[in-house]
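>> Question from a student workshop board

For tomorrow's exercise we were told to take the sequence and the ligand below, predict the bound structure, and bring the output to class. My setup keeps failing. Could a helper post the expected result so I can at least see what it should look like? The ligand is guanosine-5'-diphosphate.
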Amino acid sequence: SFTLAIVGRPNVGKSTLFNRLAGQKLALVDDTPGVTRDRRVHDGKLYDLKFKVVDTAGLEETGSETLEGRMRAQTEIAIAEADVILFMIDAKGGITPADMTFADLVRKSGKPVVLVANKSESRGAEAGMYDAFRLGLGEPCPISAEHGQGIPDLRDAIVEAIGKERAFAEEEEAEAEARPAVASQETTLIGDDIEDPDAEEIPAYDASKPLRIAIVGRPNAGKSTLINTMLGEERLLTGPEAGITRDSISVDWEWRGRRIKLFDTAGLRRKSRVQEKLEKLSVSDALRAIRFAEVVIIVFDATIPFEKQDLQIADLVIREGRAPVIAFNKWDLIENRQEVLADLREKTERLLPQVRGLRAVTISGETGQGIDQLMENVALTHEIWNRRVSTGRLNRWLEGVVTHHPPPAVSGRRLKIKYMTQVKTRPPGFVVSCSRPEAMPQSYVRYLINGLREQFQMPGVPIRLSLRTSD
Ligand code: GDP
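>> Workshop helper replied:
Here is what the output should look like for this input. Compare the format with yours to find the bug.
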């Protein structure tokens, strides 16, 4: 059994979902204004999942001058108690600054999170869904807590977030008791796959190994056409039967003497082709391709770029820590190229800020224009993704940064940063030791990441940074 918290700003619909999960009208029945309920954890159920739900619902109704402060405190407690967080937004109302604040709290906790977009049945919810990517919490799961829509998907998303083992683990009282009351020493702020720095030897960059590339994108973006042109032959056969897919496999290729393994997405294509736009992209198929790859070429249709699915895919690639390159395809169809290109570049930076400097190339899979340049960018991004910075250089840089723009004081005490080291590559991952990692604002962590990116020339790849307590 695990513990789940529903977190979000007032009025997004937390109570409604809470009632659905806990199966009782708790928020309404129990709530006496000004009185704090003592029982805050309830049994919850969702199909085959059994869990505890931490209740923050109703708290916002208690009149208080420090409403925001209290909500924040309550949210922090709920987050601390939870194994998984359902971060809820109102897709109809769109993203507000309050959403951003709460999202920061959630991200800071480093806990598994499901971004839940409520009221998705409403008119105008589409824009809110799109907007939700800005939170950097991954792909939103659309539901209607009121009408019960999207609840099966929510169940799947929860299982995915915490993993099957955890989701279906039996009650273990002993383990619960053994768990420390305070959060562990390490706070992972961005990224969650940084392990013990001593555990991993960073391998040197090896250009003789085949470079693994996946080509992903939504149906009809032009993936198959591109692969065929690259390979110079009709390697991807079109299947006669609807819905039949074959397992994805890799195809060996060579580019300027460099050995390449291309992920053959024929299966993916045929399936999408048949079901056309009715069905959303199969995330598991895309994931398989993405996990196979080191570099992922995300094919956008330049005539209809930045659709919701494009962003979902890009988000997946980034979250999986792969080296992304965008190919704006069908460039042969574009007339006012300068204008369109400027627009595409602006959107890339704005909509995918996690990977500042992301490389994007215009191509035509059909005529072959731009493929060479695309491959140059693939090789370069791959090299950056493998980049390692010496501890000496890192700390000389860090010293200057901390002197010129020190971390803020929190509750009257200045936060101190001591030391930084790179603990992994593919993508680059760093650990910073500092006083009170839990108090370090997210904005400062971003500042460090952006600084690293610039100073050590790592544009366009995900960068992981975690904080540790210094002794
Ligand atoms: P996939 O579903 O991503 O594999 O897309 P396809 O490769 O099957 O391409 C979808 C459609 O776009 C087909 O009709 C292609 O002929 C067309 N197409 C693909 N690439 C280009 C391109 O570079 N230029 C133009 N004009 N059309 C393209």
